Amino acid sequence: MQDHEKSILYLMLIGGMIGMSKLLVSDEKLTFRLIIGRTILGSASSLIAGLVLLQIPDISPLALIGIASALGILGSTFIEEYLKRNVGKWGK
C-alpha cells in the first residue's frame, strides 16, 4: 500500500473514532443507526483534511492527523446541526 493510501485510511479511522467517541460522551440513547451514522459522518468530515495533502504534499503526518481531528469534530457537529434544522424543509 502506498503512502497516500495509508494516509486516507488513517484519516477515515480517526474520523470514525471521533464519531463513536462523541456518542460515548453524549446522553443520547445508543442505537445502531446512530452509531453507524456518526461514524460515517466523522469519517467523511475528517477526510476533508486530505485536501491539505493536495496543497502541501510533504506535510508532517502529525500535522495532518491534527487537522483531520479538528475537522472530524467541528465538521461533523456543523453538518449534523445543519441537517437537523433543514430536514423539515426538504420533507415538504
Could you write a compact summary of the structure shown?
The protein is 80% helix and 0% strand.
Molecular structure report:
This protein is mainly α and 92 residues long. The chain contains four helices and no strands. It has helices at 3-24, 32-46, 50-55, 61-91. Helix 1 packs across helix 2 (32-46) and helix 1 crosses helix 4. The longest helix has 31 residues, at 61-91. The radius of gyration is 15 Å and the shape is globular. The model has no long low-confidence stretch (mean pLDDT 79).
Mean pLDDT: 79
Into which percentage range does the β-strand content fall?
under 5%
Principal-axis shape: globular
Count of individual helical segments: 4
Question: How big is the Rg?
Answer: 15 Å
How many strands, what sense, and barrel or not for the largest sheet?
Answer: none
Distance between the termini: 47 Å
